[in-house]
Model the fold of this input.
Amino acid sequence: MPRWELDGDTFSLKKMLVGLGMEIAFTPAVDFSGMNGECNLAIQDVLHQAFVKVDEAGPMALHSV
Done:
């Protein structure tokens, strides 16, 4: 079995999430006070990156946000 790796670029999901109707989550008008009791939380961006490695032991896939 051939060994190979793929380490993908990090890319932003913000534009896609806003397009799906989550625009308020990226504005100061959002209310995340249920998380810490304060109204000073906001989302600046959502990032995605993937890594895939295949070798003799089998496939391994990781993703980070």
In short: Strands lie at 4-7, 11-12, 47-55, 58-64.
